[in-house]
Design brief:
This protein is an alpha/beta fold. Helix content is 47%, strand content 16%. Strands 3-2-1-4-5-9-6 form a 7-stranded mixed sheet. It has a two-stranded antiparallel sheet with strand order 7-8. Helix 1 (2-26) packs parallel to helix 3. It is elongated.
Amino acid sequence: MQSVEVNLDKLMRKLGNVGKHQEDKQGPKKKKKNHKKTTEGLDAEVEHANSGKEEVSSFPGGSIEGSAINQSVKGGSGLRKKIKQKKGLKPDSRKSEQQPQNVSPAVDEVSGLTNLQKGMKESLDGARFRWINELLYKSDSSEAVRMMKEDPAVFHDYHSGFRHQVQSWPSNPVSHYISQLSSYPQNTIIADLGCGDATLARGLSLKKLKVLSFDLISDGAYIVAADICSHVPLPGSEPSSSQMSEGEAQVVDVVVCALSLMGTNWPVCIREAWRVLKPGGELKIAEVASRFTDVDAFVSLINSVGFKMKAKVKRLRSTRWDGLKFFTIQDDHNSHFTLFEFKKVARTLRTDKEWSKVMSSGGILKPCEYKRR
């Protein structure tokens, strides 16, 4: 028992002098390292004290000495705090050190893209749009059908790029037709050949006008899938003899071709427009002005199919919504687009050879090529 008390006295003296002993040994220069060694030495002594506690407890009355050791250990814990305060260290000083922050570029909250990423995406989207556009204008419509069937996303990507192009136009032919056709009698049936995303049908939906929309891919709602330069799935017939006729069984009052005469075989679309139109029906055509190599030759080709030009439109009107009311914008100096109004007239039956000559005249319209902006 006496030996145990002697050992305890030694331990108490060692614990009391541990801080001073370590400072004298290491010197004042290496503060952080000194602090580390001091605490390590203290931990070792505490561990030794704990082991001593177990030994003392085995003797009679060991609980008294164990209590004294516990107080010594608590004193060591207090000593550790004093050492930290003396060294000017805080327990969480490392956490409070300022770390260099990476300044991230501004991110668009809607798209989740930075301005740089948005610019790169727009460039890629624009390049893809121009590539698809070139294929649609410089190949037969059957090639476009094949491409859309293999990858339906092509249709979406093209019209997404097209909508982006429309934003830079001074006026839009489709908006002009929405404004113009809004005054037509109710239940007028309109066929929109090459409707895109069916903007015309959506714009006239409240006017009680029936719009039949056709394009290469169906949206399951407005658009009926069809190759308009091959066959439009509507009733109507060609003349059956050499006598003048406008065919029969037609149901369409107006056909609209707004920027849709694409593909090298586009004249077939005009022939289909004649077939599905009622006698005296209207054909409205809008095209980019730069596509025309010879406007008179273009009008002559349309007339040869069975039409008569009523007017060449120079002023474009569009109806827009400002959030409170509709208002009309008129472009009196339109130079970007050329618009025509034709009326269906009777004709005779044509031979395959005659049709072949007409259908091979697609070169009158040049491809529409969008430049990189």
